[in-house]
Amino acid sequence: MKRLSWIKAAAVISVLLLSGCASDKSVRVVDAKVNLVEVVGNASAALLSSGIQGVSKERTILSTSFVNIDDLQQSSTFGRLVGDTVASELVGSGYNVMEVRLRDSLFMQPRLGEFMLSRELRSVSAEHDAQAVLVGTYAIGGEYVYVNARLVSVMDSRVLSSHDFRLPLNRDIRKMLTVGR
């Protein structure tokens, strides 16, 4: 009888211990540690290595904040930080980068979600001998934020280079997506 009680107790303890090892996937993502600068830096390196032939290091690349794909007129702390980090990586690679905050001077095609360059941006690019503009979007999912970075020609809106990546939607990133909007 004592042996049966001991077996039941051992079984209960085992179940409790095993349930403690089980984890809810969303809890892991919320608590996921990520070095945002490192991940964005790696994505920037991929953007540069994906074939930006013809982009001169002497001519200017304009840099903008990345925007929410669901509202192309809105950015956030996250969008500004990611745009600035990619721009920093371009500078570190020897490119001539100029920051511009032209949120309202970019014209979007609503159904396509692509950036088209406005006359104001063309004017700024001519003034600074710019050849391209760094643009990007992010989409907030359930567990991740998905980011697309692009270098776009100021002459014909052609995408010169593009790279996609994702980051876990942890507490830190979630806060940056909501603060400053």
Task: Report on the architecture of this protein.
This protein is α/β, with parallel strands linked by helices. It has one domain: Rossmann fold. Helix content is about 40%, strand content about 25%. The chain is built from 6 helices and 8 strands. The chain has helices at about 1-20, 25-30, 35-50, 75-90, 120-125, 170-180; strands spanning about 60-65, 65-70, 95-100, 105-110, 115, 130-140, 145-155, 160-170. Strands 1, 2, 3, 6, 7 and 8 form a 6-stranded mixed sheet that branches. A two-stranded antiparallel sheet has the order 4-5. Helix 3 (about 35-50) crosses helix 4 (about 75-90). It starts with a helix and ends with a helix. The relative contact order is 0.19. The model is unreliable at about 10-30 and about 100-115 (pLDDT under 50).
